[in-house]
Design brief:
Strand content: 5-15%
Oligomer: single chain
Structural class: alpha+beta
Number of domains: 2
Number of strands: 6
Order of helices and strands: HHHEEHHHHHHHHHEHHHHHEHEEHH
Shape: globular
CATH superfamily of the largest domain: 2-methylcitrate dehydratase PrpD
Radius of gyration: 21 Å
Distance between the termini: 27 Å
CATH topology of the largest domain: 2-methylcitrate dehydratase PrpD
CATH class of the largest domain: Mainly Alpha
CATH architecture of the largest domain: Orthogonal Bundle
Strand order of the largest sheet: 4-3-5-6
Length: 448
C-alpha cells in the first residue's frame, strides 16, 4: 500500500523526492516503460560484459565477493548486492549505448537498473516491486540532475553524482523502506557522490567506474538507511550541500520538481540510436538526412562543418583520437565513420575501422564550432547545424532540432528489440538472446 505523504515535504526537495519515490504509482503504462528501459540496459550490459574494465573489475574483486543471490553478468557468478551492482553498472556503460535523460544529461539506466536488480535478486522480491524501484530511481536521479544542470556538467559527470542518489532510492524501495528512510538513503548517498569530467578526456578506463561506483555507493546508502542510519536531510539544497558545492547556485529546484506528481520521468527517456557520445547524435542524424536527400558518398565530400551546443564543442571536438574511448567521443571520427561505414555501431570501434585510411582522410575535413544560438537551448534541446560542401561545389545545409531516440522522436519497441539483438546476439547467440528478449518484454518474474 502506498505510503502516506510526509508532512514536512513542502519546501525540502529531498523530502519531496523521497515521498514521490515511496508513492510511485504502479500502472500498466509505467511497467511498459520500465520494460523498455530494461531491454535497453540488458543490451548494453551484455555487449559490455566481455570487455575491460568490467572483466578486470570482476577479476580484481573475485576473492572479496562472497555469498549472495545477485547475478554478476560479467562472469555469471552470484554476488552480494554491492558487488553485483558495481560490476554490472560498469559493464552497462562501456559501449556508450546506454540510455539518457536529456534534460539532466544523465545516464540513469546503467546505474539505477544495476543497483535495483541486484537488490531485487538478492531479496527475491516480485517483479512489480523491481519496476516501481527502477521508476523511483530514475525520478530521483534525473530530477536532481535537472536542478544542477548545465553548470554541474562543467566539472562533474552527472551519472556518477546524481546516479548515486537514484540508486539509493531504487534499492531503498526494494528493501521496503518508507518515505522517511528513502530520504535518509538519498541523503547518505549524496555525500558519497563522485565522477570528474577529466576522467573521460582521454583513453583512461575511468568512465565506466562512475556508474559502477554510483550503483555500489547508492546500494550501500540504502542498506544503511534501512538499518536506521540517518543522513543530513538538507544535503541537497543547504548552503553547504550538493547543489551549492557542484553547481553555480543552490539548484533550480522549482524547475526540477515541476510536474513531480505527473508522468514519471522514465516515460520520457532517450534511447541511443548510435554507439557513441550523445552530444554527437544530432550531427549524425543531420548527415543521414542530407545523404538521403542528396545521395552523396564519402568520396564526394570536400568538407563538413558542425555547429553545436556547448558539450558538442567542448567534449567532442577531438580531431586526433587515440583509442576506443577517445574515438567514441570524437565528432570528427564518428561523422567520417558514419559516411564510410553507413552507421556508428559497435563495429565502428574495431581496430581495422579506427585505422581505415578512408575514414582518417575524411576526418581531416570535419570541423566543429560552438553555435551560440544552439548553446542557449541546451540541455533541453540537443540540436546541430551541419553544412556539407561537396567536391562539385554544392553546399548542403541541414538543421537537426532533435535526435532520433529522444522523447520527441522515440525509438519504437521494435527498434529497441532490434538494437537488443544487434548487441546481445553476438555474445549470447541468437536463440538465448531471443529468449531473454521475450522474457524482458513479457515475463512475470525477475531476470536471473
Amino acid at each position: 500500500m502506498p505510503e502516506a505523504p510526509l508532512a514536512t515535504t513542502t519546501a525540502n526537495p529531498l523530502l519531496r523526492l523521497a515521498d514521490r519515490a515511496a508513492r510511485m504509482p504502479p500502472s500498466a503504462e509505467l511497467a511498459h516503460h520500465v520494460r523498455r528501459a530494461m531491454v535497453d540496459w540488458f543490451a548494453c550490459l551484455i555487449a559490455g560484459s566481455r570487455l575491460s574494465p568490467a572483466t578486470l573489475l570482476a577479476a580484481a574483486l573475485r576473492e572479496e565477493r562472497g555469498a549472495g543471490r545477485a547475478r554478476c553478468y560479467v562472469d555469471g557468478e552470484l554476488s552480494g548486492i554491492r558487488h553485483a551492482a558495481l560490476i554490472n553498472a560498469a559493464a552497462a556503460h562501456i559501449v556508450e549505448f546506454d540510455d539518457i535523460h536529456r534534460d539532466s544529461g544523465h545516464h540513469p539506466g546503467s546505474v539505477t537498473i544495476a543497483a535495483a536488480l541486484a537488490a531485487a535478486q538478492h531479496r527475491g522480491v516480485p517483479l512489480a516491486v523491481l519496476h516501481r524501484a527502477i521508476a523511483a530511481g530514475y525520478e530521483v536521479s534525473c530530477r536532481i540532475g535537472m536542478a544542477v544542470t548545465p553548470s554541474h556538467y562543467r566539472y562533474w559527470h552527472t551519472t556518477g553524482t546524481c546516479g548515486t542518489m537514484g540508486a539509493a532510492a531504487a534499492v531503498a524501495v526494494v528493501l521496503g523502506c518508507d518515505a522517511e528512510r528513502i530520504g535518509h538513503a538519498i541523503a547518505l548517498a549524496a555525500t558519497m557522490t563522485g565522477g570528474l569530467q577529466e576522467a573521460f578526456r582521454g583513453e583512461a578506463m575511468c568512465k565506466p567506474f562512475h556508474p559502477g561506483h554510483a550503483a555500489e555507493a547508492g546500494a550501500l546508502a540504502a542498506m544503511a538507511a534501512a538499518a536506521g542510519i540517518r543522513g543530513a536531510l538538507s544535503v541537497l539544497d543547504g548552503p553547504l550541500g550538493f547543489a551549492a558545492a557542484t553547481s553555480e547556485d543552490r539548484g533550480k529546484w522549482d524547475l526540477a520538481l515541476a510536474g513531480l506528481d505527473d508522468q514519471p520521468i522514465i516515460t520520457a527517456i532517450t534511447f541511443k540510436n548510435h554507439g557513441c557520445c550523445g552530444h554527437i547524435f544530432a550531427a549524425l542524424d543531420a548527415l543521414a538526412a542530407l545523404r538521403a536527400a542528396h545521395g552523396f558518398g564519402p568520396e564526394d565530400v570536400e568538407s563538413i562543418h558542425v555547429g553545436g551546443y556547448g558539450p558538442t564543442k567542448e567534449i567532442c571536438d577531438r580531431p586526433d583520437p587515440q583509442g576506443v574511448q577517445d574515438h567514441r567521443f570524437s565528432l570528427q571520427y564518428c561523422a567520417a565513420a558514419f559516411l564510410v561505414l553507413g552507421g556508428v555501431r559497435l563495429a565502428a570501434f574495431r581496430p581495422e575501422n579506427m585505422s581505415d585510411p578512408r575514414i582518417r582522410a575524411l576526418m581531416r575535413r570535419v570541423d566543429v564550432s560552438l553555435d551560440p544560438e544552439l548553446a542557449g537551448a541546451y540541455p533541453r534541446r540537443r540540436p546541430a547545424r551541419v553544412t556539407v560542401t561537396l567536391r562539385d561545389g554544392r553546399r548542403l545545409s541541414h538543421f537537426q532540432p532533435t535526435r532520433k531516440g529522444d522523447p520527441d522522436m522515440p525509438l519504437s519497441d521494435e527498434e529497441l528489440s532490434a538494437k537488443f539483438m544487434e548487441l546481445a546476439a553476438p555474445v549470447l547467440g541468437e536463440a538465448k538472446a531471443s529468449a531473454l528478449l521475450d522474457r524482458l518484454w513479457h515475463g512475470e518474474s525477475l531476470p536471473d
